[in-house]
Design goal:
heterodimer, A: 253 residues, mainly beta, SH3 type barrels, Porin, eight-stranded antiparallel β-barrel, four-stranded antiparallel β-sheet, 14 strands, B: 233 residues, 2 helices, 51% strand
Chain lengths: 253, 233
């Protein structure tokens, strides 16, 4: 089945082309130099724990940090050997001034002082599936303002909503912390094309809700939220809609 | 205590020969020995505020360059998408990935293709189920990936390239036949890194959604296979 799509000859030719163009990186003046302070650090062939160790740099040697990928650092020795070292080993290295290397790792402490936050979530909006993107700015430890964009995909109608609200985290220093949210926005509803006699609608929406955010690791958080929406329809009575964000993933910076 | 004259004389002689030698132990300012110290002037009036030693140490300028972090990956792909009931067609797409750890990554993809004609439409002659614009197929997907089998491949004796076989699953939307459809996607892929900043991907995905185009609601599986190129930044 897969054969017609991946002619291996084409793949090899593409690889060969890339290998010709993708030579070793050229040394740049702005690269960071560090001193090895551990008895030795091991260089792996790739940024992962399973890649084999092929080189060892001993204490006192100066090496250059080429780049970082997740928790791995590509370093180049003065003899031109490049390899990957894990973060745990890099912590024990020194700046040329003799200070320990500060990797400025986002951690719980940074979590408390975070200002910007963004993420995605999946959930349910009055029985319809919902995909949600959100971003917020915290102007104090507890209080932040948040913009949420929802794509609502239902059986009978589709829609988009955009809301702006305030979010109050009760105890921000807890790993799992509850929050309260309140806001307003607009919702655009578009009935499915298979339905007859339907019109597109633009309505204002207001909401009150609450949720939990869970600090995962580094700069990442999980989130779960419920909102009670009131859609201010053009009809005689307003509509109340339950909205659940079952699981969201967020990161702060 | 009685000090004999002879011993006193000996001690004076020892002191006279060794004490001048102590100046040899002075370190740090070898030039200072040559400086002619002017005779101390008698202190008259207010003592001067000038420091006795004026250190002229040049501060070392330390400019810490940021470490180049390459956790993002952006790329494009082209492949084949089989739209259930509506033939297979070329699919183009773009991909943005963020590597959280060495094991997990988040991925956003967006692609577009075009539906062909069903067998029914071909047999019946002119009864078209969809208009021309309704045959446009676009999708987006937000997924989580897991590098299940990282490894290396070897080309010949001297070249080894990092690879990973990964599994991907996520949610998204498909716009097809005039409507948005909530779509669940899942699949696997294989990534080869010819250099540490570029990757070649081969991916197989299944896009699953409900459709009631022919009156009855049914689950549709749209299989996609594509080849992509991406760059880390």
């Amino acid at each position: 089945m897969r054969r017609p799509f991946t002619p291996s000859g084409f793949l090899l030719a593409l690889l060969a082309l890339l290998m010709l163009t993708a030579g070793p990186g050229i040394a740049r003046a702005d690269e960071r130099k560090i001193l090895i302070a551990d008895p030795f650090i091991e260089l792996h062939t790739g940024p992962g724990r399973g890649y084999p160790v092929f080189h060892v740099v001993e204490r006192g040697r100066e090496v250059t940090i080429v780049k970082r990928r997740t928790d791995w650092f590509e370093i180049r020795t003065d003899r031109g050997v490049s390899g990957w070292a894990p973060r745990e080993q890099m912590i024990a290295t020194l700046e040329p001034t003799g200070e320990p290397l500060d990797l400025q790792e986002p951690a719980r402490e940074n979590y408390m002082s975070r200002r910007w936050q963004a993420g995605v979530a999946g959930g349910d909006f009055a029985g319809a599936s919902m995909i949600s993107v959100f971003g917020g700015y915290a102007f104090s430890d507890n209080l932040s303002i948040e913009l949420t964009l929802n794509h609502i995909i239902g059986e009978f109608s589709n829609g988009y909503s955009a809301t702006l609200g305030l979010m109050h985290v009760f105890v921000p220093e807890w790993r799992i912390s509850p929050y309260f949210t309140l806001g307003t926005g607009v919702i655009f509803t578009e009935p499915k094309s298979t339905l007859v006699q339907s019109i597109d609608r633009d309505d204002q929406i207001g909401y009150v809700g609450g949720g939990l955010q869970f600090y995962l690791t580094r700069r990442f958080m999980l989130r779960s939220e419920y909102r009670n929406n009131i859609v201010f329809t053009s009809r005689d009575d307003n509509e109340e809609v339950d909205e659940w964000k079952y699981l969201g993933f967020a990161f702060f910076f | 205590m009685e000090v004999s004259g002879l011993r006193l004389l000996f001690l004076i002689a020892v002191a006279a020969t060794t004490l001048p030698g102590c100046s040899l132990f002075r370190r740090g300012e070898p030039a200072a020995a040559d400086v002619v110290v002017p005779a101390a002037e008698p202190v008259t009036g207010e003592p001067s505020d000038k420091p006795i030693i004026d250190p002229q140490v040049e501060r070392r300028e330390i400019k810490r360059t940021r470490i180049d972090t390459e956790d993002f990956e952006v790329g494009a792909y082209v492949g084949v998408l089989s739209i259930e009931d509506f033939e297979s067609n070329v699919v183009y797409g773009a991909r943005l990935a963020y590597h959280l750890t060495e094991d997990f990554f988040l991925e956003a993809t967006a692609g577009q293709s075009r539906a062909g004609r069903t067998s029914y439409e071909n047999l019946s002659g002119s009864a078209d189920l969809l208009t021309d614009s309704e045959r446009d197929y676009t999708y987006y997907a937000l997924s989580v990936g897991w590098n299940a089998l990282p490894g290396e491949i070897f080309l010949g004796e001297n070249r080894a390239y990092n690879t990973a076989f990964y599994l991907v699953a996520g949610i998204g939307n498909t716009t097809f036949a005039g409507d948005d459809r909530f779509t669940v996607n899942g699949g696997f892929g294989y990534r080869i890194l010819p250099a540490d900043w570029i990757a070649v991907h081969f991916d197989v995905r299944d896009h699953v959604y409900d459709i009631d185009l022919l009156g009855e609601k049914k689950i549709v599986n749209n299989l996609e296979a594509h080849l992509g190129l991406s760059i880390f930044f």
